[in-house]
Protein backbone atom coordinates (compact mmCIF):
# COMPACT_ATOMS: atom_id res chain seq x y z
CA UNK A 1 0.00 0.00 0.00
CA UNK A 2 1.40 3.42 -0.99
CA UNK A 3 2.19 5.89 1.77
CA UNK A 4 0.33 9.07 2.70
CA UNK A 5 2.60 12.14 2.74
CA UNK A 6 1.71 15.44 4.37
CA UNK A 7 3.79 18.61 4.54
CA UNK A 8 2.67 21.44 6.80
CA UNK A 9 4.11 24.96 6.90
CA UNK A 10 7.58 23.79 5.89
CA UNK A 11 10.32 26.41 6.13
CA UNK A 12 13.97 26.09 5.13
CA UNK A 13 16.64 28.79 5.27
CA UNK A 14 20.31 28.80 4.44
CA UNK A 15 21.76 31.75 6.36
CA UNK A 16 19.66 34.70 5.30
CA UNK A 17 18.30 32.98 2.18
CA UNK A 18 14.75 31.64 2.38
CA UNK A 19 14.70 28.50 0.26
CA UNK A 20 11.22 27.21 1.29
CA UNK A 21 8.49 29.31 2.85
CA UNK A 22 5.33 27.87 4.42
CA UNK A 23 4.97 24.95 1.99
CA UNK A 24 1.87 22.79 2.54
CA UNK A 25 0.55 19.89 0.52
CA UNK A 26 -0.73 16.38 0.90
CA UNK A 27 -0.24 13.31 -1.31
CA UNK A 28 -2.79 10.52 -1.05
CA UNK A 29 -1.70 6.85 -1.02
CA UNK A 30 -1.04 5.56 -4.54
CA UNK A 31 -1.12 9.01 -6.19
CA UNK A 32 1.44 10.13 -8.75
CA UNK A 33 2.08 13.68 -7.69
CA UNK A 34 4.07 16.33 -9.60
CA UNK A 35 6.28 19.03 -8.16
CA UNK A 36 7.07 21.68 -10.76
CA UNK A 37 8.39 25.22 -10.95
CA UNK A 38 11.11 27.28 -12.59
CA UNK A 39 14.83 26.74 -11.94
CA UNK A 40 15.77 27.56 -8.37
CA UNK A 41 12.15 27.34 -7.13
CA UNK A 42 13.17 24.95 -4.34
CA UNK A 43 11.99 21.59 -5.72
CA UNK A 44 15.16 19.60 -5.02
CA UNK A 45 15.53 21.30 -1.63
CA UNK A 46 12.01 20.14 -0.80
CA UNK A 47 12.92 16.58 -1.79
CA UNK A 48 16.04 16.86 0.37
CA UNK A 49 13.84 17.82 3.33
CA UNK A 50 11.48 14.87 2.79
CA UNK A 51 14.36 12.40 2.36
CA UNK A 52 16.18 13.67 5.46
CA UNK A 53 19.16 15.14 3.59
CA UNK A 54 18.19 18.69 4.73
CA UNK A 55 16.73 19.59 8.10
CA UNK A 56 13.97 22.21 7.73
CA UNK A 57 13.94 25.13 10.19
CA UNK A 58 10.30 24.51 11.05
CA UNK A 59 7.14 22.76 9.92
CA UNK A 60 6.03 19.17 9.78
CA UNK A 61 6.48 16.21 7.43
CA UNK A 62 4.46 13.10 8.13
CA UNK A 63 4.52 9.75 6.35
CA UNK A 64 1.43 7.68 7.18
CA UNK A 65 0.77 10.03 10.06
CA UNK A 66 4.23 9.62 11.65
CA UNK A 67 6.33 12.76 12.07
CA UNK A 68 9.63 12.27 10.18
CA UNK A 69 11.04 15.81 10.17
CA UNK A 70 14.78 15.60 10.81
CA UNK A 71 14.88 11.77 10.58
CA UNK A 72 18.16 10.64 8.94
CA UNK A 73 17.98 9.22 5.39
CA UNK A 74 18.99 5.68 6.40
CA UNK A 75 16.17 5.49 8.97
CA UNK A 76 13.68 6.84 6.44
CA UNK A 77 14.75 4.16 3.97
CA UNK A 78 13.85 1.51 6.56
CA UNK A 79 10.43 3.16 6.82
CA UNK A 80 9.68 2.82 3.13
CA UNK A 81 11.09 5.95 1.51
CA UNK A 82 13.29 5.74 -1.59
CA UNK A 83 14.48 8.41 -3.98
CA UNK A 84 16.47 9.05 -7.10
CA UNK A 85 18.74 12.05 -7.69
CA UNK A 86 18.99 14.64 -10.45
CA UNK A 87 22.48 13.25 -11.15
CA UNK A 88 22.47 9.50 -10.45
CA UNK A 89 25.03 8.62 -7.77
CA UNK A 90 26.18 5.13 -8.77
CA UNK A 91 29.24 3.09 -7.85
CA UNK A 92 30.86 3.52 -11.24
CA UNK A 93 33.37 0.66 -10.91
CA UNK A 94 30.74 -1.81 -9.70
CA UNK A 95 28.47 -3.83 -11.97
CA UNK A 96 24.86 -2.92 -12.70
CA UNK A 97 23.65 -5.80 -10.50
CA UNK A 98 25.93 -4.78 -7.61
CA UNK A 99 24.61 -1.22 -7.82
CA UNK A 100 21.00 -2.39 -7.73
CA UNK A 101 21.69 -4.73 -4.81
CA UNK A 102 22.79 -1.72 -2.73
CA UNK A 103 19.13 -0.71 -2.68
CA UNK A 104 18.23 -3.94 -0.89
CA UNK A 105 20.51 -3.61 2.13
CA UNK A 106 17.71 -2.13 4.25
CA UNK A 107 15.83 -5.40 3.82
CA UNK A 108 18.64 -7.64 5.05
CA UNK A 109 18.05 -9.13 8.52
CA UNK A 110 20.20 -8.05 11.47
CA UNK A 111 22.87 -5.34 11.38
CA UNK A 112 26.59 -4.89 10.68
CA UNK A 113 27.64 -7.54 13.23
CA UNK A 114 25.38 -10.24 11.76
CA UNK A 115 26.46 -9.22 8.26
CA UNK A 116 30.14 -9.59 9.21
CA UNK A 117 29.42 -13.07 10.70
CA UNK A 118 27.64 -14.16 7.50
CA UNK A 119 24.90 -16.17 9.20
CA UNK A 120 22.96 -18.64 6.98
CA UNK A 121 19.74 -16.59 7.09
CA UNK A 122 21.75 -13.68 5.64
CA UNK A 123 22.91 -15.78 2.67
CA UNK A 124 19.30 -16.81 2.05
CA UNK A 125 18.12 -13.19 2.08
CA UNK A 126 20.95 -12.15 -0.21
CA UNK A 127 20.01 -14.89 -2.66
CA UNK A 128 16.37 -13.73 -2.63
CA UNK A 129 17.40 -10.12 -3.19
CA UNK A 130 19.59 -11.14 -6.10
CA UNK A 131 16.69 -12.95 -7.78
CA UNK A 132 14.46 -9.92 -7.23
CA UNK A 133 17.13 -7.49 -8.52
CA UNK A 134 17.57 -9.55 -11.68
CA UNK A 135 13.80 -9.59 -12.24
CA UNK A 136 13.61 -5.81 -11.75
CA UNK A 137 16.43 -5.22 -14.23
CA UNK A 138 14.76 -7.54 -16.73
CA UNK A 139 11.38 -5.80 -16.32
CA UNK A 140 13.01 -2.42 -16.91
CA UNK A 141 14.82 -3.48 -20.08
CA UNK A 142 18.24 -3.77 -18.43
CA UNK A 143 18.56 -7.56 -18.28
CA UNK A 144 21.30 -7.49 -20.91
CA UNK A 145 23.43 -5.10 -18.78
CA UNK A 146 23.47 -7.01 -15.48
CA UNK A 147 27.20 -7.76 -15.53
CA UNK A 148 28.36 -4.54 -17.22
CA UNK A 149 30.27 -2.01 -15.17
CA UNK A 150 28.23 1.15 -14.56
CA UNK A 151 30.91 3.36 -16.12
CA UNK A 152 30.49 1.52 -19.45
CA UNK A 153 26.88 2.70 -19.74
CA UNK A 154 25.09 5.89 -20.78
CA UNK A 155 23.45 8.55 -18.60
CA UNK A 156 19.99 7.27 -19.58
CA UNK A 157 20.87 3.75 -18.46
CA UNK A 158 22.29 5.12 -15.18
CA UNK A 159 18.85 6.58 -14.51
CA UNK A 160 17.24 3.18 -15.10
CA UNK A 161 19.75 1.47 -12.79
CA UNK A 162 19.10 4.06 -10.08
CA UNK A 163 15.36 3.47 -10.40
CA UNK A 164 15.83 -0.30 -10.01
CA UNK A 165 18.05 0.33 -6.96
CA UNK A 166 15.31 2.47 -5.40
CA UNK A 167 12.62 -0.13 -6.19
CA UNK A 168 14.61 -3.00 -4.65
CA UNK A 169 14.10 -1.36 -1.24
CA UNK A 170 10.33 -1.98 -1.81
CA UNK A 171 9.35 1.61 -1.05
CA UNK A 172 5.91 2.88 -0.07
CA UNK A 173 6.93 6.38 -1.15
CA UNK A 174 9.22 7.05 -4.11
CA UNK A 175 10.70 10.49 -4.90
CA UNK A 176 11.92 10.90 -8.49
CA UNK A 177 14.10 13.97 -9.13
CA UNK A 178 14.01 14.91 -12.83
CA UNK A 179 13.86 11.34 -14.17
CA UNK A 180 13.50 12.56 -17.78
CA UNK A 181 16.43 15.02 -17.74
CA UNK A 182 18.88 14.22 -20.51
CA UNK A 183 16.76 11.39 -21.97
CA UNK A 184 15.92 11.26 -25.70
CA UNK A 185 12.21 11.50 -26.58
CA UNK A 186 11.83 7.74 -27.20
CA UNK A 187 13.15 6.96 -23.71
CA UNK A 188 10.82 9.52 -22.10
CA UNK A 189 7.86 7.59 -23.54
CA UNK A 190 9.23 4.39 -22.03
CA UNK A 191 9.81 6.15 -18.70
CA UNK A 192 6.19 7.32 -18.61
CA UNK A 193 5.07 3.69 -18.99
CA UNK A 194 7.47 2.54 -16.27
CA UNK A 195 6.44 5.16 -13.70
CA UNK A 196 2.76 4.58 -14.43
CA UNK A 197 3.26 0.87 -13.78
CA UNK A 198 5.14 1.59 -10.55
CA UNK A 199 2.32 3.80 -9.32
CA UNK A 200 -0.60 1.65 -10.40
CA UNK A 201 0.60 -1.97 -10.28
CA UNK A 202 3.19 -1.79 -7.52
CA UNK A 203 0.92 0.55 -5.52
CA UNK A 204 3.65 3.00 -4.59
CA UNK A 205 3.02 6.69 -3.92
CA UNK A 206 5.23 8.62 -6.35
CA UNK A 207 6.30 12.27 -6.15
CA UNK A 208 8.07 13.46 -9.27
CA UNK A 209 10.05 16.67 -9.86
CA UNK A 210 10.24 17.34 -13.58
CA UNK A 211 10.61 20.15 -16.12
CA UNK A 212 9.26 17.94 -18.92
CA UNK A 213 5.61 19.08 -18.93
CA UNK A 214 4.60 16.29 -21.32
CA UNK A 215 5.67 13.75 -18.72
CA UNK A 216 3.95 15.66 -15.91
CA UNK A 217 0.72 15.93 -17.93
CA UNK A 218 0.80 12.25 -18.90
CA UNK A 219 1.58 10.90 -15.45
CA UNK A 220 0.36 12.97 -12.57
CA UNK A 221 -2.94 13.02 -10.73
CA UNK A 222 -2.12 16.37 -9.17
CA UNK A 223 0.68 18.93 -9.09
CA UNK A 224 2.04 21.65 -6.84
CA UNK A 225 3.80 24.57 -8.49
CA UNK A 226 6.60 26.16 -6.47
CA UNK A 227 8.03 29.60 -7.16
CA UNK A 228 10.71 31.30 -5.07
CA UNK A 229 10.31 28.59 -2.42
CA UNK A 230 6.56 29.11 -1.90
CA UNK A 231 3.52 27.23 -3.21
CA UNK A 232 2.07 29.16 -6.14
CA UNK A 233 -0.86 26.84 -6.89
CA UNK A 234 -2.08 23.27 -6.63
CA UNK A 235 -4.33 21.42 -9.08
CA UNK A 236 -4.19 19.16 -12.12
CA UNK A 237 -1.34 19.49 -14.62
CA UNK A 238 -3.80 21.01 -17.14
CA UNK A 239 -4.91 23.63 -14.60
CA UNK A 240 -1.28 24.46 -13.84
CA UNK A 241 -0.39 24.84 -17.52
CA UNK A 242 -3.20 27.35 -18.11
CA UNK A 243 -2.82 29.29 -14.84
CA UNK A 244 -1.61 32.87 -15.56
CA UNK A 245 0.45 32.90 -12.32
CA UNK A 246 2.32 29.79 -13.48
CA UNK A 247 2.86 31.18 -16.99
CA UNK A 248 4.21 34.38 -15.45
CA UNK A 249 6.53 32.46 -13.08
CA UNK A 250 8.04 30.56 -16.00
CA UNK A 251 8.19 33.38 -18.56
CA UNK A 252 8.50 36.57 -16.46
CA UNK A 253 5.71 39.15 -16.29
CA UNK A 254 6.40 41.03 -19.55
CA UNK A 255 6.58 37.88 -21.67
CA UNK A 256 3.49 36.47 -19.96
CA UNK A 257 1.57 39.66 -20.86
CA UNK A 258 2.68 39.17 -24.49
CA UNK A 259 1.32 35.60 -24.46
CA UNK A 260 -2.02 36.76 -22.96
N1 LIG B 1 22.93 23.59 0.39
C1 LIG B 1 22.54 24.79 -0.02
N2 LIG B 1 23.15 25.93 0.44
C2 LIG B 1 22.74 27.15 0.03
N3 LIG B 1 21.74 27.37 -0.84
C3 LIG B 1 21.11 26.29 -1.33
C4 LIG B 1 21.45 24.95 -0.96
N4 LIG B 1 20.64 24.09 -1.61
C5 LIG B 1 19.82 24.84 -2.37
N5 LIG B 1 20.10 26.15 -2.20
C6 LIG B 1 19.43 27.28 -2.86
O1 LIG B 1 18.04 27.06 -2.77
C7 LIG B 1 17.39 27.53 -3.94
C8 LIG B 1 16.53 26.43 -4.52
O2 LIG B 1 17.38 25.45 -5.13
P1 LIG B 1 16.82 24.04 -5.63
O3 LIG B 1 17.97 23.30 -6.22
O4 LIG B 1 16.06 23.40 -4.53
O5 LIG B 1 15.82 24.51 -6.77
P2 LIG B 1 15.13 23.63 -7.91
O6 LIG B 1 13.73 24.11 -8.01
O7 LIG B 1 15.33 22.18 -7.65
O8 LIG B 1 15.95 24.08 -9.19
P3 LIG B 1 16.29 23.27 -10.56
O9 LIG B 1 15.00 23.09 -11.29
O10 LIG B 1 17.23 24.20 -11.28
O11 LIG B 1 16.94 21.98 -10.18
C9 LIG B 1 18.46 28.04 -4.89
O12 LIG B 1 18.57 29.43 -4.75
C10 LIG B 1 19.70 27.33 -4.37
O13 LIG B 1 20.86 28.08 -4.64
From TrEMBL:
Family annotation (SMART domains): AAA
Gene Ontology annotations for the cellular component aspect, listed alphabetically: plasma membrane
Keyword match Nucleotide-binding: yes
Keywords, comma-separated and alphabetical: ATP-binding, Nucleotide-binding, Transport
Entries under InterPro entries matching the protein: AAA+_ATPase (IPR003593), ABC_AA/LPS_Transport (IPR051120), ABC_transporter-like_ATP-bd (IPR003439), BCA_ABC_TP_C (IPR032823), P-loop_NTPase (IPR027417)
Transport among keywords: yes
Gene Ontology MF annotations: ATP binding; ATP hydrolysis activity
Residue ranges of domain ABC transporter in the record: 5-253
Name used for this protein in its record: Branched-chain amino acid transport system ATP-binding protein
Source organism per UniProt: Nocardioides terrae
Amino acid sequence: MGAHLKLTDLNLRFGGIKVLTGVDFEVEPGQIFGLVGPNGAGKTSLFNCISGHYRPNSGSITIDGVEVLGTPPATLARHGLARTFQHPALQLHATVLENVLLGGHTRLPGGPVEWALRLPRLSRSERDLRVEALALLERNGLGWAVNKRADELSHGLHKGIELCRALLSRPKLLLLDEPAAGLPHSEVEQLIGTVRRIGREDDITVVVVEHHMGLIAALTDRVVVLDHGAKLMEGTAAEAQSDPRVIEAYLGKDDADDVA
